[in-house]
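Data card: per-record layout.
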Amino acid sequence: MALTATRLIWIDCIAGAVVGALVLSLREWLARLYALPTDLLFVIGIANLAYACVSCALAMRSTDGRVPFLRVVAVANIAWAVCCVVLAVVWFAEASVFGLGQLLGEAVFVGGLGVLEWRAAVRVQR
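The structure for this 126-residue chain is written out next.
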């Protein structure tokens, strides 16, 4: 059973808000655990929260006219996944296994969510 577009967007919203809040509030501790700069974790946290705001606003819209926006958030998720992979490559020598795991895990999660959102947008438009 495929997830509906609305459920996918709510998952996106909640995941972004939770990760963003956790990364921001724990960034000093995570910087030590991940062996990544605090400033980088700050940017990751803010990006997640900003994205959560956009996806939550979209989730609260009526279903009319949602497909173009759904495609935008799908592309944004895929782009963020690519950014996370690039960050993992750039910080490969310095980051701990936990830091690389966080970056690559986020890439897999948001990239997969982006693909599912794109497919949902195609289904909704049919």
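Known properties of this structure: DSSP finds five helices and no strands in the chain. Residues 88 and 101 are 9 Å apart (CA to CA).

See the next section for split statistics.
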